[in-house]
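HUMAN: Quick job: go over this next protein and say how the chain folds.
***
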Amino acid sequence: MRKFFKVLKWIGITVSVIIIILVIVVAFRQNKTYDAPYPAIHATKDSATIARGEYLAYGPAHCSGCHTPQSDDSKIAAGEHLPLIGGRDFKIEIGTIRSHNITPDASGIGNFSDSEVARALRYGVTPEGAPIFDFMPFHNLSDEDLTAVISFLRAQQPVKNDVKRMDLNLIGKAVYAFLIKPVGPVGEVSKSIKPDTTAAYGSYLANSIADCRGCHTARNLMTGEYTGESLAGGLKFDHPESGISLVTPNLTPDKETGRIYGWTAQMFMDRFRKGRLIKESEMPWEQFQQMSDNDLRALYNYLTSIEGVKRNNGPITVKYEN
């Protein structure tokens, strides 16, 4: 019996040492940094370029859907172009992540160079080199559009708003320590892409600007890893406060399970013009409502040109189950 308790004691000591080492490593890796290239992007005061950046920020790139506080939602819904002061809380399983102030104030991006802002968007690292959670998948934004966005950000009125970056729980800190790394562009980044109504431009909108894949693909919300086929839907967002969960629909043109199968371009556009019909929807309807007819046609042409994926995700709204 004494031998048994002796073995148990050493097991307890070993487990305790492992836990202590793990805690130390996790704490140390909260300050990990990465190297990444600095894109040769420079803001301009050209009015057309700034206008393009503003359209992207308040439209298809939906920057205003994240970089404004929740308290401003009604003003955003009314079409106001509010300063992008950040401070929106995103409460997920690993803790709370907050959007940054991206006005040209010192508390925002005022002390960042253009190339540091461009690097954050394209390679997912802060000016200090810390990895950014991949909520802004603009890695393949063309040089011209990246210039437009940064030019617009510089043209805003500076607004002071210090925002604490994130509050992670223990699991979140472990995830950040070992799983979160910078995400860069796929393939070669285009210098310029001409807007039109083609499926090719629609692909650029869907995958490099509007991030349709980010919600309409099943993924692990703890790590961000994709677990399903692209645009086939199935990602569930829980809303316990209202007692429902929302499941993203299949956007591929599968004739049995595709949400928009059989829709005309006009039907697709009309749906976007109606805006938010489900209050809890994660879709940035207020921003997508501001997309031009040509951009919506391009998006429709792309979604109806891809290969259909058979995936029945059930109803969009289901009862929340803890």
In short: The mean pLDDT is 92. Residues 102 and 108 are 5 Å apart (CA to CA).
